[in-house]
Sequence to fold (344 residues):
Amino acid sequence: MRRWTILDVAERAGVSVGTVSNALNRPEIVAEKTLATIRQAIDELDYVPSAAARQMTGARNPAIGLIVLDIENPFFTEVYRGVEAVAGEAGYVVVVCSFAGDPEHERRQLRLLEEQRVAGILATRVGKGNSRVYGRMRKSGMPVVMLDRRAATKDQCSVSVDDVAGGRLAGEHLCELGHRRLALVNGPHDWSQCADRRKGFVAAAEAAGAELLDAADVEVEQMTIEAGEQAAREILAADEKPTGIFCANDLLALGVEHALIAAGHRVPEDFAIVGYDDVAFATMAFVPLTSVRQPAYELGRRAAEQLLNEADDQQHRHERVVFEPELVVRASTVAAIDAPLSRA
Fold:
């Protein structure tokens, strides 16, 4: 099959190539009758404009970039659904980039997105040393919205969750159940979300007179099921063992649960477990998982709205939106529970 070109469209419509280009990129300057003729020619030929050619004219690519840490994490899948709902309605596509914690890979992805002239970028993480890259992109006029993390300054939009409050909910729940020897399985300390969750959890423990055991204070590089399993083995190998465990995301919590049960322990009778995010399959774990819920879909929607508003409005006012987390109680902390209980 032949691939039709802009020259073919011009010949079919009986106009110049420049007029077709204007119709594609600046339709407001083309007469309505001419515009209708060109659109009819495009439909008849089933012509698809070249994105590269349109970018040469300075036209903005109808795409936005979404930078996530790990696309295999269902939390980010739900975030994407929220972003795509808004972007699709506005005529944009979403380009998802997952950098798995590798800052160099993140920089390469950002370069490609910038070369493609995307309308803007939603960033759920900023790899080490890449703050200056995002800063340079913003200075060049490209909107960058922080998603699931608070912007450091007031001149940038962000959508996040109060992770200090989320960590506190987890700690208070375990302490209310009588747990006094606690464990924390957390991600890297230099990730603001992980630092905030730890801060809230430790504050709740201290207020209740509970102790975060040194040997059970585990930091992992990758927040995966496999890392959770390894963390559980480290906790079990310690002389003093906790009875309540808080994990900084649900993947870690599921890994911890799997390893504990595989070692012959009961959940929650021997170890109570609280996760974070409340991903869809938290309810499908062998022991349904108590978790601190983040409104992932709404995070994505609101961030996309901010980004497109900033891209289209020169008078855009930056805002930092913060959602409140919610504790969803299931059988991994309360054995006799029949249905999830929520507490904001």
